[in-house]
Amino acid sequence: MYKGAVAEVWQISETGPQPPWVQQAFAENYLVWLDHHVRILMSGLQPSLTKNLQTGAVGAIGGGFAGYAMYELGYPGDYLDVTNHRVVSAGKFAKQYQPLA
Fold this sequence. Notes:
This protein is α+β, with helices and mostly antiparallel strands. The protein has one domain (9-96). The chain has helices at 20-27, 49-55, 90-96, and strands spanning 9-11, 31-34, 37-41, 71-74, 79-81, 86-88. The strands form two sheets. The chain has a three-stranded antiparallel sheet with strand order 1-5-6. The longest helix is centred in the N-terminal third of the chain and has 8 residues, at 20-27. It comes from Lacticaseibacillus manihotivorans DSM 13343 = JCM 12514. This is Role in replication.
């Protein structure tokens, strides 16, 4: 949980388990391994690709994108919080997130 709400997270790992949403994001190139880190297209991740397309967050005709900082980098051991669209270090994750009972 993050700030009292359930958050869906993945601990970034090249060899560890991947939830279905992570597998789908890799298949659609929203997550891409570059050397030993992952490039993350945050606007392409949940809550909904359809919603992102409607608002123009994923792209536009002619290749334009809505906003800046489209990509973030994550390193093995970091956590990708898809619910809140953020990458946090393991240390910050331990301090800011609470496991579900």
